[in-house]
Amino acid sequence: MSLGGDFYALSDQQLEDLLDGSLGLAFLYDDLDEQPRECYAKAEDAWYELTQILGPEMNVYAEKTDAIPEASQYSWANETAALAESLAGIDTATIERRYKPEMETDLATIKGYIKDLVAFYQRAAQNGDAVLFRVT
Length: 136
Prior knowledge:
Elements: E1 5-10, H1 12-20, E2 38-40, H2 47-61, E3 63-65, E4 71-75, H3 77-88, H4 92-98, H5 107-126, E5 130-135
Antiparallel strand pairs: 1-2, 1-5, 3-4, 4-5
Helix pairs in contact: 2-3, 3-5
């Protein structure tokens, strides 16, 4: 079972280099001089719930890969703005409808994480960044 999931804002070139293996995973751990612009890890323990609630929007603009272990999903920079707009359009009623009582993270916390994640995607879009979601 995975422990968490993090979101990274990075350039298209950095994403391409991660996918083809020319940029190692040390890049994601701040072990290199080159680093992602931003990492959103506050909700890493609720990654599954977030992907269940936000999946209908995220899956339209994201591709999945096993090239970046464990499992990853990414959006190129040209898709990030549309995804940010789509995520920002999710209303409270939709979140509440998609939330399942068996989810481990309470609804109020999930709503806060979604607000933070929408802001993260909006910043990435403003910066012209791609976004990588990685389950670890």
